[in-house]
């Protein structure tokens, strides 16, 4: 993507749209809503182009706008959803087999060494596997995880928007993290021989 030039912007809008759409699809899991959010973000960025100061890349600025559109979509969904029980998606005892009677890891279930985390995070392939693991989470669980951990929505706001309790939110976040850990363990770290 081109940076600001003396003659104005020359961003690769097709590439930017593709990146935005991929991100929005991961968050929203609905193509129509994702396309709407991306279109709104791109239109908003073009309408407010005079506000762009060039302190970050143009794509970063548009992604920030998109994140707000995604949060707006979550809020709209929450208003339209009847309050269903999010805690039914992953059973409460789903991970009990990993721990002993004292809630310690069973010897054969302990997470293996993950190597150098900084080097791993730098690898594009890791994020592809992470995205696959995230996509395989139940939709409501992934929604809570992404709102809290990626979009940085406060727990209180997540609870209000999704009509769940703080306890329920904590349980969902724990289950999401455990499911992601197990998926990454099986699909990335064990494959790498760590």
TrEMBL record:
Keywords annotated in UniProt: DNA-binding, Sigma factor, Transcription, Transcription regulation
Domain RNA polymerase sigma-70 region stretches: 15-79
Q: Indicate yes or no for the key word Transcription.
A: yes
Swiss-Prot/TrEMBL GO biological process terms: DNA-templated transcription initiation
Per its record, how is this protein called by name?
A: RNA polymerase sigma-70 factor, TIGR02943 family
Q: Which organism is it from?
A: Caballeronia arationis
A single GO molecular-function term is: sigma factor activity
A Pfam family of this chain:
Sigma70_r2
InterPro entries assigned to the protein according to its UniProt record, in alphabetical order:
RNA_pol_sigma-24-rel, RNA_pol_sigma-70-like, RNA_pol_sigma-70_dom, RNA_pol_sigma70_r2, RNA_pol_sigma70_r4_t2, RNA_pol_sigma_r2, RNA_pol_sigma_r3/r4-like, WH-like_DNA-bd_sf
Q: Which family does it belong to?
A: Belongs to the sigma-70 factor family. ECF subfamily.
Does the keyword field hold Acyltransferase? no
- The residue ranges of the RNA polymerase sigma factor 70 region 4 type domain are 131-180
